[in-house]
Amino acid sequence: MKYQGKISQWNDAKGFGFVEPNGGGTRAFVHIKAFTPRSRRPINGEVITYQLVNEANNRYKAINIKFARDSAQERAQPKIHKNATSKQHKRVKRALFGSVLSLLFSIALLSAVLMGKLPVVVGFTYLIISLLTILAYAKDKYSAQHNKWRTPESTLHLLSVLGGWPGAMFAQQQLRHKTSKSEFITTYRLTVFINISALLIMYTEQGHYLLNDIILPLISSIL
């Protein structure tokens, strides 16, 4: 059983004293060698935690003594470390998932273009918008660091939903920008879902008409 109390009558020259337990109880003998670890020397009034041993002469002594403040820090440190490790693990998992998703999407998009299922201009558009998105993220991070005019989050999400989400994924991971804002990440994931869903619709008959008769002429006029 562990007790907590204050050191009294400490004789630093001889390295011993006594401990008075909190709330009253048996006073026990304290020796400097009973501290684990012996990081520093105690002083009168210092709070310690200890175990109690009843010796043969019916006198009590304290063993396995620790400074109460050090014990509290030891208990808090694993919790802090665990939280930090958990957050880091989540970031790594999210980054890995994003990288795999971007890679698979890029391969699927390139394959669709090469097989003639999607026009070349679609792949080219994804590339251009992704590059613009990376620049937008870089500009926004620079502005945040230098207290300048920020890029609206709505602009970043608009670029993402228009096809720049692979570039946004790259910028988030490489620049470590916007990754700690859960609300932003949730909206970003929605833009990814909308964009991929819209691209899949292009494979339907109605989507084919929309792509060839409306979207492509519009893109051609802009480019």
Give the helices and strands as they follow along the chain.
EEEEEHHHHH
Oligomer, anyone?
Answer: single chain
Q: From the helix content, strand content and strand pairing, which structural class follows?
A: alpha+beta
Number of helices: 5
Distance from first to last alpha carbon = 79 Å
Q: In angstroms, what is the radius of gyration?
A: 33 Å
Q: List how many beta strands DSSP finds.
A: 5
**Which of globular, elongated, flat, extended, rod-shaped describes the shape?**
rod-shaped
Overall pLDDT metric: 84
Helix content: 55-70%
Main sheet properties: 5 strands, antiparallel
Would you give an account of this structure?
The protein is of the alpha+beta class and 223 residues long. It has five helices and five strands. It has helices at residues 68-114, 120-145, 153-175, 182-201, 205-222, and strands at 2-11, 16-21, 28-31, 47-54, 60-67. A five-stranded antiparallel sheet has the order 3-2-1-4-5. A hairpin with a 6-residue loop joins strand 2 and strand 3. The chain is rod-shaped.
Indicate the topology:
Blueprint: E1 2-11, E2 16-21, E3 28-31, E4 47-54, E5 60-67, H1 68-114, H2 120-145, H3 153-175, H4 182-201, H5 205-222
Antiparallel strand pairs: 1-2, 1-4, 2-3, 4-5
Helix pairs in contact: 1-3, 2-3, 3-4
Concise summary:
The chain is α+β, with helices and mostly antiparallel strands.
What keyword list fits this structure?
223 residues, alpha+beta, 5-stranded antiparallel beta sheet, 5 helices, 5 strands, 16% strand
